[in-house]
Amino acid sequence: MTQGDRRDVAWWKSAVVYQIYPRSFADSNGDGFGDLAGIMTRLDYLSTLGIDVIWLSPIYPSPQADNGYDISDYRDIDPRFGTLTEFDALLAKVHELGMKLVMDLVVNHTSDEHPWFAESRSSRDSPKRDWYIWRDAHHGGEPNNWGSLFSGSAWEWERGTDQYYLHLFDRKQPDLNWRNPQVRKAVQDIMVWWLDRGVDGFRMDVINFISKADGLPDAPAIPGQRFVVAFESFVDGPHVHVYLAEMNREVFGGRDGEYLTVGEMPGVSPEQARLYTDPARGELDMVFQFEHVSVDHGPAGKFDWVGRDLVALKKSLHRWQVALAETGWNSLYWNNHDQPRVVSRFGDDDAEYWAASAKALATVLHGMRGTPFVYQGEELAMTNFPFRSPQDHKDIEAVNYYNAVVESRGDEAAALAGLAEMSRDNARTPMQWDPGPNAGFTTGNPWLSVNPNYTWLNAAAQIDRADSVFAHYQALIRLRHELPILVDGDFTPLMEDDPQIWAYSRNSSAARLLVIANCGRDVRNVEIGREWTGARLLLGNLPGTPAATSSQSLELAGWDARIYYAVAP
Ligand code: TEU
User: Fold this and answer.
1) DSSP string covering 421-435, please?
2) What is the DSSP letter of 218?
3) Residue 514, SS3?
4) What per-residue confidence (pLDDT) applies to 4?
5) Mean of the per-residue pLDDT values for the chain?
6) Where is the Glycosyl hydrolase family 13 catalytic domain (predicted)?
7) What 8-state DSSP symbol labels residue 112?
8) Taking Cα atoms as reference points, which of 567, 504, 216, 249 lies closest to residue 367?
9) How many CA atoms lie within 13 A of 59 on its CB side?
10) Which of 9, 87, 264, 537 has the smallest number of Cβ neighbours within 10 A?
């Protein structure tokens, strides 16, 4: 098959998804906490941006230990966010505006306050005992050396029944036992319940963690560490493909409709991702891989931040483009509720380059093959928060980490510096709507401080300006819808070892695209080759860029980014 024939009909291949983190998006009732009624008032904004799908981070009843990623009832709405009636109205309005809505499905674990866990912990004979992962003490201590992703041991002792339960995340997030077919059936029933309500699919939280290695073996020891996160024993575990294929069959089999499934998969390899997203296997449509958002992690983990390495970043994303070219499909993302803001992380958030660098990074991501995801505020180039003290951090991961460092008498100043760069709260500060009080997010007291730059960095200042970051995202989304080559063209990396230029081409039987960006402040002259002479500028991010190339070389100003179009040779 030639490229031109490989036209695929899956609707999500030309779609752009927008992630809402409801507690920080829009507050309608002044309690400082975003809600569904608030989202309702902002749907026109999303329509104007042009996105196709909304993904809502969890809105289910939850003790909110991990901001809703600890669910205590999968079939209702947390009163903080609203009611099921409001949800139905929101969904209807989303559909009326021609968009779709995808729910967050968090089923590697539940809250410890979910009735299933209350039942499971009540006795060793409970019919739901085996719904979670219980083990006896080993030599008077934890069953193995597994560490939690949120610091400390992954095991919590339960005095009542003299056993430990496993929690890969916080102790308030016990892991479900997916080996038990009743658990899998219960999850499938939840999914069907939401699909029957009209939702358009699911984003599945850490779904490649659901199958744990036989016997839960110790992780290879790390000197000086009592507990070790045992990735090799739960990432892409022994039965995960079987569970996902079963889920797909049981939930979506025989259903008519246009659905989207995306699995969040820390530690997934391209080879595994190809299996998860091979349409012939019937598991998932796409996955969120983590390689490119780990290139600035140091040997001691994410808070051991080592700064930007553009070549490593490019090579990582390029590797995924190539690996999933023939089979499978990529998601494309810079941001979500767990990642620091991209303009601060990989761009340049000093005033002079703030807008240009945000647009440049958006350009190189949206020019790739895959389904782009935009996280709330990214379309405005919201930045990291100026964290100073330990009290500034609300996130459970940050708090646990800081306490663990203090406890082990580590370097607290270094811990705070790492947290400032990498804390998830960077992404979670309230959405900046306008220059009014609390950025228009709430009339009350916001649950997390608004970034002080909201006075000039806000949606109202950008939506009607042709040169805004918002307008640039609008243009990229429009191109995704209008240009088939962006969806199915081949990908060829260019100048991969250049420490400052990000460039690649896209090719189909009919056309060619050159995506090129100067990811630094210094002006650069770049040889692009004779074949691009006369190519038409489709999109640029700086004023005054000529409408076509006139020679074999380009002069790129600081953070200059362009997309050129030419017919096939
Ligand atoms: O995150 C999974 C995950 O492993 C990381 O991205 C996590 O955020 C952490 O930074 C690891 O260092 C998902 C959710 O997106 C996240 O919000 C939840 O806290 C987590 O699962 C548990 O449900």
Assistant:
1) HH-THHHHSPP---S
2) P
3) strand
4) 39
5) 96
6) 19-428
7) T
8) 504
9) 29
10) 9
